[in-house]
TrEMBL record:
InterPro entries membership: O-antigen_ligase-rel_domated (IPR007016), WaaL-like (IPR051533)
Source species of the chain: Spirosoma arboris
Compartment(s): Membrane
Protein known as: O-antigen ligase domain-containing protein
Keywords: Ligase, Membrane, Transmembrane, Transmembrane helix
One Pfam family in the UniProt entry: Wzy_C
Residue intervals passing through the bilayer: 17-34, 40-59, 66-82, 88-107, 119-135, 147-168, 175-192, 230-249, 254-272, 300-319, 392-414, 426-446
Primary location recorded for the protein, binned into one broad class: membrane
Signal sequence region: none
Superkingdom of origin: Bacteria
Domain O-antigen ligase-related, first and last residues per copy: 263-405
Molecular function per GO: ligase activity
Taxonomic lineage from the root: Bacteria, Pseudomonadati, Bacteroidota, Cytophagia, Cytophagales
Length: 478
């Protein structure tokens, strides 16, 4: 054994010239990159080796790919700080495809029978419809189909396979939720920094480029943190508030209760500084869902005792109207008095006239960002969507919108049925929380197009195939 070790050391000494040469070459390449590309070159010098290691790690363990994908979904908002245009969304697609490839390479460890779940077949129906939409004769620019099909169905389908068949454990779910809470906590802090300290130069440039008209109202900044916009930031903060409130009521540990209530307060004020009024409906829809799933009269009574007076204060008084954020939240409960809501209804009437002879819509990729990029003169690209469901309606028509809404309803019904069969208390609590948040985001997506935006889409896609397959973590009974 000692002779073998000594021999290996001697071999390394004999070949040290090779390692020296490799080190010099790496240093020269790094110096050239930094000298030619500046900060971007430095990032490449560090990022390329790390990226290669991550690729190898993902190919060995697909669950690592899912974690990387989740974290990068939050980081995508920081692209506004980059001076070079980088296709981060395409990079995320690459991570997801690599994770799927790793799932197939490690196929012997996977439970492929889980793909027989009803939720997966429902998703396949929607996926098939969106693929057929590529051939929509109304589409003025078919190549833009891919840009919106990813958020409509393709990413959801790939995530569904990865989450369903991988041997995900309860600890993996804890890690996913912990990452979600940590990122949301830092997002709230960054939103407070924007509101009370000031914006960075990159953020000011982003506002000046066109986002100012949505994010500065009556001289007040709507904080957007490192999300795509204030609408998504506010909705995510409302979702975390809901999640933490549910966990607060469900845990028996006073330490965890203190942590959850602190996070709920921080997230709720993050929602308030976003100025996103519609995000209130994440809580107004999600919390009753939680109570219905619990089927516990005591829980319902306690919730009514707390929520009733708070809603009455918002609906029937003007207490706190001097604070801009409270006034914005209160105005969400009086939509008919809001000028922007009336404009939305007028836009939807214009769309009804445009789509009355287009049951399959104008084609995927004709509205919102992709529409303005590829077919800016087309009518569908010129009308603000202001809603995820309006975007689905424009691009896939009344047929596509019906299928999509039935799919969401199917997921909720399947999740409800599965949750009510659970025996394990921890699994039941977590899945009820995830399902309630899913319902809340589905409701608020009528007012904001957030269901197809990172990181909300990533979280929703993962969660939907956690609570619809939750029986795999249940306590086995004889």
């Amino acid at each position: 054994m000692l002779d073998h070790t000594a021999l290996s050391i001697n071999q390394l000494r004999d070949n040290r010239w090779l390692f020296t040469l490799l080190g010099v070459l790496c240093a020269l390449v790094a110096g050239w990159l930094i000298g030619s590309w500046g900060v971007m070159g430095a990032l490449m010098t560090v990022g390329v080796p790390v990226g290669l290691l991550l690729m190898v790690g993902i190919l060995v363990e697909p669950k690592l790919g899912l974690l990387v994908y989740l974290n990068l979904s939050f980081l995508i908002g920081f692209t506004r700080f980059l001076t070079v245009d980088i296709a981060v969304g395409t990079g995320l697609d690459g991570i997801l495809v690599l994770t799927l490839l790793s799932t197939f390479l490690n196929g012997k460890r996977m439970n492929w029978k889980r793909l027989r779940q009803p939720a997966f077949w429902i998703l396949i129906v929607w996926l098939s419809f969106t693929i057929l939409e590529y051939f929509n004769p109304e589409h003025p620019h078919p190549s833009s189909w891919f840009y919106h099909a990813r958020s409509f169905s393709l990413s959801w389908f790939l995530i569904a396979i990865v989450v369903s068949v991988n041997p995900i454990t309860k600890n993996d779910i804890k890690v996913l939720c912990a990452l979600w809470l940590v990122w949301s906590f830092f997002a709230a802090l960054w939103g407070f920094k924007q509101q009370y300290i000031g914006l960075e130069q990159a953020e000011l440039r982003w506002l000046a480029a066109g986002a100012e008209k949505q994010h500065i109202l009556w001289g007040q900044l709507r904080s957007f943190s490192f999300y795509s916009d204030a609408g998504q930031f506010g909705s995510e903060m409302a979702g975390i508030t809901l999640l933490c409130l549910i966990l607060f009521f469900e845990t028996n540990s006073w330490l965890y209760r203190a942590v959850y209530i602190c996070l709920a307060v921080i997230a709720f004020w993050g929602f308030a500084v976003s100025g996103t009024r519609g995000a209130l409906f994440v809580i107004l829809a999600g919390f009753p869902t939680y109570l219905a799933l619990k089927r516990n009269l005591l829980h319902i009574f306690r919730a009514l005792m707390v929520a009733g007076p708070l809603l009455a204060l918002l609906l029937f008084t003007h207490i706190g109207d001097s604070v801009y954020q409270i006034w914005r939240i209160r105005s969400a409960l009086h939509p008919t008095e809001d000028a922007s809501f009336i404009v939305r209804l007028e836009n939807q009437q214009k769309l009804r006239n445009f789509l009355k002879d287009k049951p399959f819509g104008a084609g995927i990729g004709t509205s919102s960002g992709a529409g303005q990029r590829f077919s800016p003169n087309y009518f569908a690209a010129q009308i603000p969507t202001d809603s995820w469901y309006v975007q689905i309606w424009i691009e896939t028509g009344v047929v596509g919108l019906t299928i999509y809404l039935l799919m969401l309803l199917g997921f909720i019904l399947i999740g409800t049925f599965k949750v009510w069969q659970l025996k394990d208390p921890w699994v039941s609590t977590m899945m009820i929380a995830l399902l309630a948040e899913f319902v809340g985001i589905c409701v608020v997506s009528y007012t904001n197009p957030i269901l197809g935006q990172f990181p909300t889409s990533t979280i929703l896609f993962i969660n939907s195939f956690l609570f619809t397959t939750c029986d795999r973590w249940d306590t086995k009974t004889k």
